[in-house]
Design brief:
Length: 197
């Protein structure tokens, strides 16, 4: 009887230990465009274009991935998180795509050794989430600011990318593709703007 009781207690402890373990969160990174051959070769007189850190809406500035579940409700995932701050990932992916797209400017990150005459790209992201309509929603605005602080150009951007499957892997894939498309469109616009200056 004592042996069975000890066996039962040991089994209960093992089960309690398993039930008490926290599930490790899944961590996600956005895709970053690989440099294309010759993307770094810029004309010697190419203007400097400084990519300021992307600003995200306060509700997106969290570790968890955001999903809109109803017209007026968004949820923050507890176990599906960004592996590094979302603003950092968006900035890195934007810079990489612009380096591949804009061939008439020297692309630099804010905080590096930037000349005083540099143009600054300021980007705000207001939407970057899954949506109950089965799409990844991406939206925001950008501004191109000259060395005197004057706005040279600005525009809104918006992308809706269908999810290929259920789950956060598919969501992050769609968010990555949507962000890259937004950055490519922006790069084409910047190329035209810089050519006119």
């Amino acid at each position: 009887m004592t042996y069975l009781r000890l066996l039962w207690i040991a089994g209960a402890i093992v089960l309690a230990g398993c039930a008490g373990r926290a599930v490790a969160p899944s961590m996600f990174l956005l895709d970053i465009a690989a440099p294309t051959p010759g993307a770094q070769t810029k004309p010697g007189d190419a203007p400097a274009l400084v990519i300021d850190r992307v600003k995200v809406a306060p509700y997106l500035d969290e570790a968890g991935i955001v999903y809109q579940t109803a017209l007026h409700r968004v949820v923050l995932a507890r176990n599906n998180r960004w592996a590094s701050p979302l603003a950092t990932q968006l900035t890195g992916a934007l810079q990489a795509t612009l380096e591949n797209t804009v061939d008439n400017a020297s692309i630099r990150r804010s905080g590096s050794n930037n000349p005083g005459a540099a143009l600054h790209l300021v980007t705000h992201v207001d939407e970057f989430m899954g949506h109950y309509d089965g799409h990844a929603h991406i939206g925001g605005r950008w501004q191109l600011i000259d060395a005197d602080g004057r706005r040279v150009a600005d525009s809104h951007f918006e992308q809706r990318v269908a999810l290929s499957d259920d789950g956060y892997d598919a969501l992050v894939d769609s968010l990555s593709r949507g962000w890259q498309r937004s950055a490519q469109t922006l790069g084409q616009r910047l190329t035209r703007l810089l050519a006119e200056r």
